[in-house]
Amino acid sequence: MKRISIALLALAAAVPGFSQTTTKLAAGKINEYGLIYNLPVTAFDVTLEAELTVKKPGEFFRYAKKYLGQDPITEASSDCVLKSVNVTPRGVADGENEYLVQFKPGSTPFMMLDEIGAPLSVNTDDVILPQSPVLPQSRPAAPIILDLPVAKQAVTAEMLQSPSSAKRAELAAARIYELRETRTDILSGNAENMPADGQAMKLVLDNLAAQEEALTAMFLGTVQTSTEVVTVSVTPGETNPRKVIERISVTDAFVGPDNLSGAPVYLDIVVTDRGKLPVNEKGEEKTFPKGGLAYRVPGAADVIVSYDGQQRFKQNFEVAQYGVVFGLNPALFSDKKAPAFVKFSPLTGGILETGTVAPAADR
User: Fold this and answer.
1) How many Å separate Cα 191 from the centre of its chain?
2) Which long-range contacts (C-beta less than 8 Å, at least 24 apart) are formed by 12-16?
3) Do the Cβ atoms of 321 and 41 come closer than 8 Å?
4) Rounded to an integer, what distance in angstroms lies between the CA atom of residue 226 and that of residue 3?
């Protein structure tokens, strides 16, 4: 299990597809008409988006009902919710298994490989690459209005000089109603000093609104919301006991899978299908062709993400490592009259499409 910075995935998402680099290998005398490649195994990138909300009471919260007629925030609190879950399959290199396909001497087949050395196609460069997912991005909390310069502008000298909290609250409330009255006078054209033009009016009205917001926050309190995104990469094994892939704290959002201050996010991978070898007309399993082009018949599994007692994501995916390896007869790709082509999934190594290469005159 591997924790990945979302910034790295965002960089990958800037261009189409995960596997951006392809390599073309041609069979010939130099390699004795043999091409070497790997079949991928399937990994999953689990992207979690959490929203953290921090609430703080204002200085005059005890007087909010009296002067504003509203219920304020009365005590500091924070809460964090799991906002979204995205699971993206990805082909990763299988370092333990390397394959060789042996073509007929004198033939000219070629193979397209992705950046991990897995086959994308044979006899065609029209490969199928996975599309980059649209993932959420982390968003820091905006500063609260009381931390902005306009908050100081809203506080009058009389408020600063008063030693009584009750008196300061009374003066702040009076200032709120004064600001509202001034705004009404400007909008109705009854202000003594009207702004010179429409742009000046907008600036004045925006400033009045910001001052009122700051003073109101002193009564009702403030709310800050931020979003944090993290991606965890998991490569399923033969057995997959439930894993804690991340923990979410009500005060710090994601804190890592080992920090017990957070509630666990669970990942379950449940095998639903095992790939099977093809059979002949007698129902007998076929044997691997000599020098054959190896590919996978993938299996499948449910990927389930749970949090706070609820299932937040469930989807069935093809998984390479729950399948079997079989092969195509290499003679199919070196036929002089009608050579075959094949396209593979970069996620599983399974066959996506087969056909016959069109003659040059028809292309």
Assistant:
1) 52
2) 12/132, 13/132, 13/133, 13/134, 13/135, 15/132, 16/129, 16/131, 16/132
3) yes
4) 20
Rounded to two decimals, what is the model's pTM? 0.84
Beta bridge partners of 43: 90
Percent helix / strand / coil, the chain, rounded to 5:
25, 35, 40
Rounded Cα–Cα distance for residues 60 and 146 (Å): 13
Alpha-carbon gap, residue 119 to 113, rounded angstroms:
4
Domain residue limits, the chain: 2-55+80-140+225-362, 142-220
Nearest to 38 by CA among 353, 358, 344, 322: 344
Task: Locate 154 and state its tokens.
Answer: 């809203």
Structural contact between residues 331 and 323, judged by C-beta atoms closer than 8 angstroms? no
- Structure-block tokens of residue 342: 């094949």
Which residue has tokens 């809460």?
79
pLDDT digits (tens, 9 = 90+) for 170-205: 999 999 999 999 999 888 888 878 888 889 999 999
CA distance 53 to 77: 8
